[in-house]
Design brief:
There is one protein chain. The protein is an alpha+beta fold. The chain folds into five domains: about 55 residues, Helix hairpin bin (Helix Hairpins, Orthogonal Bundle), CATH 1.10.287; about 240 residues, 2-Layer Sandwich (D-amino Acid Aminotransferase, Chain A, domain 1), CATH 3.30.470.30; about 70 residues, Nucleic acid-binding proteins (OB fold (Dihydrolipoamide Acetyltransferase, E2P)), CATH 2.40.50; about 160 residues, 5' to 3' exonuclease, C-terminal subdomain (DNA polymerase, domain 1), CATH 1.10.150; about 70 residues, 3-Layer(aba) Sandwich (Rossmann fold). About 35% of the residues lie in helices and about 20% in strands. The chain has 24 helices and 24 strands. A five-stranded mixed β-sheet has the order 2-11-10-3-9. Strands 14-13-12-15-16 form a five-stranded antiparallel β-sheet, with helices on one face.
């Protein structure tokens, strides 16, 4: 990033500023622009290049002057202003957004043999004897997409499922190393992939501060980064020690120019290798890790992995492996991709860090779905810089297989350097008398309901009546695909349980009143009225949603829809035995057993009766076959509908909603910024509907619109 030599704030000699005349904005426009440019330049030097070139006091003076100008003249402020990194935006949710190009995952392996097999497939696929690779660190953070239009950050999104992510633009803007405006000569549209992470120095500092305040420390840097990116208040994100590396061009519109970017006095042509892509990213102002290396063959890539595995503890951030990519872009294109991963890259994972400690006890933890997970309580031990005192034993069979008992010495590791688990027992003293083998309980330790075996797992049948499952049960019941009760999210549910307003079962939510809610922290009269209104409005629901909302194991949305159509009312379903359920098309033995066990538990039946008594009225929708098997694809952000609402309407009328456009697609429904799917639809001559067109078609069919 070059400094503008005509900008007096790049290396200021005089920091005395004239008083601001609030009547003459035109006098300050150039000053504000120069201040913003100078601050961006010094941010880049400090956060990206690790080369500070301005004293802290001088930088602060420039920043305060820009803030003062923007406060006096709001019209001088723009989204790429450095002052906008402090955050402050409050969101009720993160809207879903389609990526400019798929953000695929990587095949991975932890053995050298896996890597050599990958190399063999690559060479065979390309028909060559050797391949040049490029290696990158596999950062242990949160994958994000950043979209720039006209060189300005426009959209930030989490990876999500690789096709759709959550829009977190305001949070991404708070990260100092993420450029708000690109430098050089960037293309008209650029989508890049990066990794948001927490440097270890910042992670440990923040945890020390939390412990001093009596707060729970963060488990690991990855969890901290993930939580920060999904903060609904961006000013909270701004307080987290986040950083970001960028390593891939997802999508780019090169415009009408043959050449793009700036490098010294020359120009970059369109890249032919991934290494050149990284050079372009650096030239445009992105932070790119310097440890990327070119390798002439797979042997060099393996050797580099081994070196980094030894040196990983000296790095200022967490990594869990090395990414190996084919360097030549034409070779990448020739090999192509599978549905979820490229054929031209893989992650070569590090072996987990291991330490020895003692199991002090084995306890059972009941999860949201009722699974009883054995957990080892350990003598505290540091593994990869993180102190652990608990580790999952996964299931009863693993305890039996490994013969693990309280008092045993064991080797522990962190899966993916994150989740602690017990690897094996250490037989260092064979003559020491051991404790009795662990035995699984037959009754739930929380609600005393029966515990049944389901494959490798033991499950509490208490369901919606089990206290350990209650919070998760309420959250699931209120979730978007269940009863869709707006405002009853995880934080609100947790608060209501802490206050004792939800303590027995889901039925408790129908006893909430405005008077009970108003005295609570963060609850005003309006919020209380909205929540109570949303709960009452969703009493009228479909039987399929109600069945799904109960959280029966192995009963997802589709199975709930099948059960709704087959049985017609909840009472008939509750009376169905195993053979009757198994006779239903698409209901397998596992689902049938789980459904019978759920309704055999008296506590669950009592909760269902309580819900019905409270006025919940599940009904069966008539499936109109107006669209009899027609295929729809939805792309872009919609103004008047949620994606789920459109899917529900189309599927209720016999349509199918798919994720990709093909010759078999009947309609593509587009919103704002539809992306590549709209272009593909035009290429294939697939009919395209905007929101108005969709509304008109639904009205023509006599279907209700929202």
């Amino acid at each position: 990033m070059k400094a503008d030599q005509g900008n007096r704030f790049i290396d200021p000699d005089d920091l005395s500023f004239k008083p601001i005349n609030d009547k003459a904005v035109e006098q300050y426009a150039r000053e504000a622009a120069d201040l913003a440019a100078a601050i961006r330049y010094h941010d880049h030097c400090y956060y990206v290049l690790d080369d500070p070139r301005l004293a802290d006091g001088t930088y602060d003076a420039l920043f305060r002057r820009l803030q003062a100008l923007e406060k006096t003249f709001p019209e001088l402020q723009s989204v790429e202003s450095p002052t906008q990194r402090v955050g402050g935006t409050v969101q009720s949710e993160f809207p879903e957004i389609e990526h400019q190009a798929p953000m695929q995952s990587l095949d991975s392996g932890a053995e050298e043999a896996d890597v050599r097999e990958f190399d063999e497939r690559v060479r065979k696929g390309l028909g060559v004897d050797s391949v040049q690779y490029i290696t990158e660190l596999k950062f242990d953070g949160v994958s994000i997409e950043a979209v720039y239009r006209a060189g300005v950050l426009d959209i930030g999104a989490t990876r999500g499922d690789g096709i759709y992510g959550e829009q977190v633009t305001d949070n991404l803007r708070t990260i100092p190393s993420v450029p708000l405006r690109l430098v050089g000569n960037p293309p008209p549209m650029l989508s890049v992939r990066g990794e948001v992470y927490v440097p270890l120095v910042g992670f440990h500092r923040l945890n020390r501060e939390r412990l001093e305040r009596g707060e729970e420390p963060f488990a690991n840097p990855r969890n901290l980064a993930a939580g920060a990116m999904r903060q609904l208040i961006s000013s909270v994100t701004a307080q987290r020690p986040l950083d970001a590396f960028f390593y891939d061009i997802l999508s780019v519109d090169w415009g009408t120019r043959d050449e793009i970017g700036v490098s010294g006095s020359g120009r970059f042509e369109r890249p032919e290798t991934h290494g050149q892509e990284l050079d372009l990213l650096r030239a445009w102002g992105f932070k790119v890790d310097s440890r990327s290396e070119h390798c002439s063959d797979i042997d060099e890539a393996i050797a580099l992995h081994d070196q980094l595995e030894t040196a990983r503890d000296a790095l200022p951030y967490e990594i869990d492996g090395v990414v190996i990519k084919i360097d030549r872009l034409d070779h990448q294109r020739a090999l192509g991709e599978r549905s979820r991963s490229p054929r031209w890259a893989m992650a070569y994972k590090f072996a987990p860090r291991l330490e020895i400690t003692t199991i002090e006890d084995i306890v059972l933890q009941v999860g949201r779905t009722g699974i009883l997970t054995p957990v080892a309580q350990l003598a505290p031990v540091e593994v990869g810089g993180v102190t652990i005192s608990r580790a999952s034993l996964h299931n009863y069979d693993q305890i039996t297989e490994k013969d693990i008992r309280p008092g045993d010495k064991v080797r522990v590791a962190r899966a993916g350097d994150v989740i602690p688990y017990v690897v094996e027992r250490v037989d260092d003293k064979l003559d020491v008398e051991r404790s009795s083998p662990f035995e699984m309980l037959v009754r739930c330790p929380v609600c005393d309901a029966c515990v049944v075996r389901d494959g490798a797992y033991f499950v509490c049948t208490g369901g919606v009546s089990c206290g350990a499952q209650l919070r998760g049960a309420v959250e699931h019941y209120a979730s978007r695909h269940a009863l869709d009760i707006e405002g009853l999210g995880d934080k609100t549910v947790r608060q209501l349980m802490d206050e004792g307003l939800i303590q027995d079962s889901i039925v408790d939510i129908y006893g909430l009143t405005v008077d009970k809610l108003v005295p609570l922290e963060r609850f005003g009269k309006k919020k209380a009225e909205n929540l109570v209104g949303a709960i009452m409005a969703r009493k009228d629901t479909t039987l399929a949603r109600f069945i799904y909302a109960l959280g029966i194991r192995h009963v997802g949305e589709h199975v709930a829809e099948v059960l709704s159509r087959e049985f017609g009312d909840i009472g008939t379903l509750m009376e169905a035995d195993f053979d009757r359920l198994l006779a239903v098309y698409e209901i397998g033995p596992g689902s049938a057993e789980s459904i019978v066990a759920f309704f055999d538990e008296p506590h669950n039946c009592s909760v269902i009766k309580g819900l019905l008594a409270a006025g919940v009225a599940p009904r069966v929708e008539d499936r109109q076959e107006f669209f009899g098997g027609k295929r729809f694809v939805i792309t872009g952000s919609l103004d008047h509908w949620s994606r789920d609402e459109v899917v529900t309407i189309l599927e209720s009328a016999g349509g199918r909603v798919t994720s990709s456009v093909s010759k078999q697609t009947d309609y593509v429904i587009i919103g704002k910024k539809p992306g590549s799917k709209a272009r593909k639809a035009r290429d294939l001559d697939v009919p395209i509907l905007d929101e108005d067109g969709l509304t008109a078609m639904l009205k023509e069919k006599g279907l209700s619109v929202l």
